[in-house]
Amino acid sequence: PDNNAPPMPWFGMDIGGTLTKLVYFEPRETNRRELDKETEVLKNIRRYLTRNSAYGKTGRRDVHLQMENVTIRGRRGTLHFIRFPTSEVGAFLQLARSKGMADLVNTIYATGGGAYKFEEDFIKEVNMRLSKMDELDALIAGVLYVDSMNPRECYYWAPPDEQPVHQLPSDTPPYLEAALSQYVRKPYDFSCPYPFLLVNIGSGVSLLVVNGPDNYYRVSGTSLGGGTFLGLCCLLTGCSSFEEAISLAASGDNTTVDKLVRDIYGGDYARFGLPGDLVASSFGQMCSADRRAKVSREDLARATLVTITNNIGSIARLCACNERVERVVFCGNFLRVNPLSMKLLSYAMSYWSRGALKALFLEHEGYFGAVGCLLHLDA
Ligand code: ADP
User: Fold this and answer.
1) Is the ipTM of this complex over 0.95?
2) What is the value of pTM for the model shown?
3) Is 135 a catalytic residue?
4) Most ligand 1 atoms within 8 A of CB, residue of 81, 305, 307, 334 to mutate
């Protein structure tokens, strides 16, 4: 054990534009001396966090992501993953105060824009100082750590029989739908990761080229991200949550909303290898009043998802080619409960690069910044 480690409890927090992610380390080998020393307050906090999976109205623990038997600063224990909407930071602070955290914790390791925005509130409400870490440093440290602790962390979506997708027949519309439904999730050995492109799809999107643990740069970004998907979906369909938006999209059909190559050419644009069922113009059918009158909420949600996803895929591919990187790792909570976007990204990466690029995904999706923060807790 590391004698300079700060006192328990250990948290890492990422206060993002939409969601706040909180990672809690529950130590396993508490020896007798430490148990005696463990205060009532600390015990209560541990019990409260580890025995519940919902906190207040909007806090959730992602029990399926829990990591057993990890080591941090020489201590073994379990990592717990908790999230709540950043709009509820006030309620979180009240809860923290009611659990006696204010008396116990004087510094919380935090990243994300909210670590700056809410710094004063943390001091005023719970007397907690925020020790701030850069969010991209934290993100990469978190990805590398979690991957090293979890052999199943990194995975990809494989097309049937792992045929390169650009060789699949394109004469059976709806070809893409049929192909995507057959994709299966497979583990990927990410033990020699460098170089890779890391695409973090949160409210907005950041793209980083990572050449080594402490060697990376931000190459690009786009404001058309997960926040855009959810915002547009709420406007267009009247939905009120991410889960609802995703489930609408899952049963919708974007071809009633988008204008496809075949809507313009009557078939493929063969000369440049563009298949007929490729989207030529996202939302391009919605200029017609007749079409608008017939479109369903599901179709609008699907088109929004496909538009945002393909745009991110396209930027990722351009960056990967430019930077001569073959592996593209996607993370961020936009991919939560969203296999459709993951499969679309996998297809797009492979198809448009003629099999040269590989799309990879990580099980802990949006929690890496918070983990990275936890790792850097300094006394
Ligand atoms: P940020 O740090 O910017 O908050 P995240 O990686 O947490 O970024 O991703 C936020 C995005 O994740 C949202 O814009 C939305 O698309 C998606 N998302 C997934 N689950 C939820 C949820 N329960 N509530 C709101 N957005 C969610």
Assistant:
1) yes
2) 0.95
3) yes
4) 334
